[in-house]
Amino acid sequence: MKDLSPRSSAPADETAATTQGIKIVGFLCNWCSYGGADTAGVCRFKQPTDLRVVRIPCTGRMDPLFIAKSLIYGVDGVLVSGCHPRDCHYAVGNFYARRRMEALKAFLPFMGIDTQRFRYTWVSASEGQQWQKVVTEFSEQIHRLGPNPGLKQRSGDHSIPSIALR
Amino acid sequence: MNNNPYLPELATVQEIITETGNIRTLRVTLDNKQRMEQFDFRPGQVGQLSVFGTGESTFVINSPPTRKDYLQFSVMKTGEVTQRIHQLNTGDQIGLRAPLGNGFGFEDMKGHDILFVGGGIGMAPLRTLLLYMIDNRSDYGDITVIYGARSPKDLCFTYEFQEWRDGGINLILTVDAEFPGWKERVGFVPTVLSEVAPSAKNRIAITCGPPIMIKFVLFGLKELGYEDPQIITTLEKRMKCGIGICGRCNAGSKYVCLDGPVFSYDQIRSMGGEL
Amino acid sequence: MAVGWVKRSAAHHAVSEIERVEKAVLETSRMQLHKLVEEALPELEMMIGWAESSDPLQTTPIFIRDAKSISKLTCGPLCSQNLTGYLVKPPALDSVPKDAKPIGICVKGCDSRSLVALIQEKFLTRDRVRIFGIPCRGTVDWRKVEKRVQLLNVKSATVEDDWLILDDSGTTHKIALEEVLSRKCLGCRYPNPVIHDVLIGQSATPRSTDLATTYRDVDAIEKEPLEQRLAFWQSELDRCIRCYACRNACPLCVCQDKCIVETREPRWLTQRAGIPEKFLFHFIHAMHLAGRCTGCGECERVCPMEIPVTLIKEKLNKIMEEMLGYAAGLDPDAVPPLLTFNPGETEI
Amino acid sequence: MAVKIFIATDRLDSVLEKLSTKIDLLIPASLKDDKSAPTGFVPFVPGTAPAFDRQTTTPLKKALLPQVETLLRFEYHKDPQGSPKSSVTVDDQRQVRPTLVFGARPCDVKALTTLDRVFSNGPYVDPYYVERRKNTLFATLVCRQNDAKCFCTSVGGGPADMEGSHLRIVPVDGGYVVEALSPEAQTLLENLADAPDSARDAQAGQIVEEALKRRVGELDTKGSPEAFRKRFDQTDYWFQMINQCLGCGVCTYVCPTCYCFTITDEVENLKGERLRSWDSCMFYHYTLEASGHNPRPTKLERYRNRVGHKFSYIPERYEGLLGCCGCGRCIRSCPVSIDIRQVVGHLKENTSE
Fold first, then answer.
1. Residue C134 and residue C193 in contact, taking contact as beta carbons nearer than 8 Å
2. Does domain B9-100 have CATH number 2.40.30.10?
């Protein structure tokens, strides 16, 4: 298991310094993961500060376009978290969500968007430590990737070789 | 106005009056004092209110040009901009592009009897002309106002009905159904119109209200012998530029924002297009 | 007819005896269509088919209520439009009461899959339509034609076997059909209508039977590194003028006037013409079709800026097939994969 | 004597480069490195190959009316005393750079005469358009090849119509003869290239003469405003003509004379912009009122309005001017092959029916 103790060593801070302004959006289900994050907070587990949380009623509410829009408009990472499968407050919301997010995960790289910037996970309300682990890992991953390169205007740029289609 | 017709002048909300559950009246003044003093318009002309960040919407200036302490707009909460306008507080800054549109041909109405038929928020465009006429009362003959709404709670400008009556107006109020404490008429506006039956002779009828009311008021007026040019109404369309350029508010070749919003019934009939 | 599609490189080739026969087959299909429609029309509220337009290279949809107009009906490789969208979008059918007679419609293989998807999603019941299925050998992409030969004033366009023959103000151009077929046709697995009441002409041979052939263009993109893919889509989507032709032509884009790309509340998109807006618009279009798109290629065909928009949906279709084993528009009783789930699939 | 120069095809890039040091250039070019890709007007940078051989896919109007432009910027200021009242500042600063459109087509430039009437002939004048208009010159290519979808002479234009142009470009053997038609254009041509030799000059003259005589298209628009009015309520006519319409905005977005726009506010936190962007009368939301009422609820009314606007309303409003330049782009780009020439042409047939 990875070291879960609060990180205060120099290298981590250095990474943070070079990737200042990293923005990660977290979509957390109201019943489990939001509670998990709360638990982590109550237990005073140290967590990265670059996550901005959006509370959603259920991961079944998660439109994959929320993730797409975030990444298109320059958010550096998107983390979605809900109840464990079979533990959904609404019984089946996360089953739907799982298919949608798997499809999106496979689709993003086709459009040139790094799929590593998106992760979904299941964390229950009692798993404060698990939440800390997930969010720390994901934050580190995004810091390693650096800022989202974003979408640039390509008008008049003829340097892009077109890919031969039929 | 400045040389950029798209650039609103800044204005400040001075007073907000809650008229009904979903209608509020805003009294605003232009921040530029000189402009406010020189501001001139015709009754029936409109203004584009801007809430920066949400957008613009067109409303008639329903205070008359004879009373220029402030410009008054009555706004019904229906869309994105009007919702935002309802959230405004006194002292908030907004944008205003005014006056726009044609306004009522009040000069030609001199010496005539007048009939106003208004329904709900449709009273707002009529109010400006009505107050103008009260302020120039001797220029006009009989002035009858038939004003109706669903319930007493849906009537606007209730606080000045007495002033209208004192100004020599024959004010007839009606609501759709009986309500406890309601002492005026009961019945739909077109029905009340045929009961009152103001003579068409030398009279100009000005009507504004929901489309269905206008439709039946027109029937009623025709029955009373009103000719098309005697009937005047204001049209409403989705507008953006307000200056006859952006193209959307046309009915036939006329732009409601520029050539209207006031049209006589014969003009409407001749212009074609979708209403 | 020759089995399979042997690619011929010669652009100009003498008209052989066999080809004359093939032309006759096409003519016969058209006559067969006329005859069948004539018989069926009294029982139909309306017939939706293709007719010649002012441009000989393109057909135009036609709505027939009157037997006099049946002669205008045509079929063949120039009939590229997918007509099924008209069944669910106003106002074509506003005038048709719900309890009216069924509506006749011409469908190619790909169009029939859209029909299945619409029936599956309950926009339509099977008994409301009389389906005239037309096996398809591929449809002509007029833009590909214009890229091969400079055309000034095409007087006529005919298909004779594997050739498209154009009379351009006296000059005859003979172009191998294979070279001007729409991109979607080159990986087509279902040239024959999967649902139909009558079938017109002989059945066609699928050009593809495997995912690799069908999704060859998707694979071509995926071979490129991530940055290159991003650059590719940025440069392609940058041309988008947001005319929404792709959306309106799509038979499964059923939201129409309520589409979230135009509404202000909710406001998904601004009016800005930047790359993010264009990207997001096409993401919205594609994601809303995930597991529903039948790959009819209408979105790409109608794009005035020649953006390969179908390709985006092709990738999602490929994901659906590989991950969930589902291809849209084949089984009217199936449930689209994103509208259902399987608790057991712990690792999809 | 008018100033004329000859630009050899192989010198075109270097001449344009030289020209671009005097004035910003906008030229028709492929929007992709593939030459046969869709074309549009793009800012010239050395190496951009002009696509003079065919009409651009997107029209020229964006030179004067960009797809999106900022009308004004605003910023809210929080009250330092913490009162909920907010004040706002607004500015409409704009900058226009002198631009030469090199290689426009006569139809595209002709279309601007319609836009001029709408945007600059009042009663309100659109400063954004007018400032660009004053700072833009047009070098127009005499059209040597029209295709089956062109109908410029039917609507008052022509393959050599130079109305609104400042320079005339005539494609001749081995290059282009460019002639200044206005004094400001003459200065642009100074020291750019040599005068054409007499043979080329003569050829250019012949080409212009031929183009002036050429008739393009057979649409007769006389009486169309009245015919349209008569047809207005004949739903069957419109059903027959355009029921296949998809209701997309291609025709309006590729049209050089379609100018209708929308105005929207975009805001982030306390700062924002009021944008003007192209809109399309083919869209449902274009006329949708807040009350939910829509005067043009289906594509029948919307398409009818488009035809009416171009062939009846604009002529009525602006003394016979047409809202169509005959470029044929809407016909070329229509996904379902609707031909506006047929829709307009049939207006007059048996209107009494």
1. yes
2. yes
